[in-house]
Amino acid sequence: MLIDAHSHAYDLPRKELEKYRSMRIVSVSEDLESSLKTLSIAEEFPNIIPFVGVHPWRLGEVSGSEVEEVLRLVEKRDDVKGVGEVGLDRKIEESYERQKEVFKKFCSLASEYDLPVNVHARAAWREALEILEKLEVEKAVIHWYSGPIELLEEIAQSGYMITINPAVKIQERHRKVLEEAELSIILTESDSPYRYRGLDLKPEMIRDLIKFISEVKKIDEEALENVIASNFRRLIR
Asked: Which of 17, 15, 58 is nearest to 34 (CA)?
């Protein structure tokens, strides 16, 4: 079983989603509209696991009332399986204080409802980890982790995971993370549909990503698939 633990699947054409029915795909959301779309496609595609949230990049334009509506989805809908994409981004300094406020709200709710959190933490890796731990979030995955190597041990000790993206082939910091991270905390992701330095990221790239990771970690591809599937089951009951 191939795992895509971070995709914006609501933004993929239905025809394309048909190709991925044999995969398990976590579809994260960015605001109320995309959260509702995510929940809708999950009704049609049982292999899609819906997460709702408000992306830190969107907080410059998303109102407080819209944030509250997304929070209410977590409280009121049984089909919400996780929280995300939520988190912090230090490179958008003008909204950073609001990012922390909103991230804490989603983490508190995830802790209360025992839901996994799919975290964006660019340039704020340590701060995001501290909030997750302080608010007693039990399950979390920090997506496309390219932060400090020394934090990997704390991430593992907290029971959290990271995702490796196909960009690992061209992003040196991400490649270093892959080399150093324990297999027990690794999941695969596409972050599709997203373009990064010439790469059009899609779920179909997970197969080739597995091959690349297996070569770096010196493990058989089938065995690696089983490890990642087992990690995923710990994240998603």
From this structure: 58
Beta bridge partners of 196: 199
* Percentages (nearest 5) of helix, strand, coil residues in the chain: 50, 15, 30
Whether residue 85 has a cis bond before it, omega within 30° of 0 = yes
Q: Spell out the alpha helix ranges (H) of 77-171.
A: 96-113, 125-134, 152-157
What does residue 108 show for φ and ψ, rounded to 5 degrees? Answer: -60, -45
CA gap 26, 53 in Å, rounded: 13
Rounded to an integer, the average pLDDT of 62-83 is 97
C-alpha–C-alpha distance, residues 196 and 62, integer Å: 25
Helix (H) or strand (E) holding 119, with range, is: strand 117-120
Alpha helices in the chain (DSSP H): 14-18, 32-44, 64-76, 96-113, 125-134, 152-157, 172-180, 206-217, 221-235
Average confidence (pLDDT) over 134-154: 98
- For the chain, the average pLDDT equals 97
Rg (CA), the chain: 16
State the average pLDDT over residues 75-92. Answer: 97
Task: With H, G, I as helix, E, B as strand and everything else as coil, classify residue 216.
Answer: helix
Q: What's the whole-model pTM score?
A: 0.96
